[in-house]
Amino acid sequence: MRDKYTLYGIPHSLYTGRARAYLIKNAIPFREVSCGHESFKTNIVPKAKLATIPVLLTPNGQVIRDGAAIIEHFENSNGRPCRPESPRHRIISDLFDVIGAEGLLRPAMHYRWNFPTENLDFLTYHFLNAQTMAPHRQEKTDHMMNKMRFAGRMFGVSDTNHKFVEDLYMQFLRALDTHLATVPYLLGWKPCIGDFGLLAPMFAHLGRDPKPLAIMQREAIHVYRWVERMNSPEQDAAEFFEAGDDFLSEDLIPNTLVEVLRVLAKDFVPETLAASVVINDWLANNNPSVGTSASRYLGQGDSKAEFIVDDQSLIAGAQPYRFYLLQRVQDYFATLSSDDQANVLCLLERCGLETVLEITLDRRLGHQDNLDVWL
Ligand SMILES: N[C@@H](CCC(=O)N[C@@H](CS)C(=O)NCC(=O)O)C(=O)O
Question: Can you give the pTM of this predicted structure?
Answer without folding.
Answer: 0.97
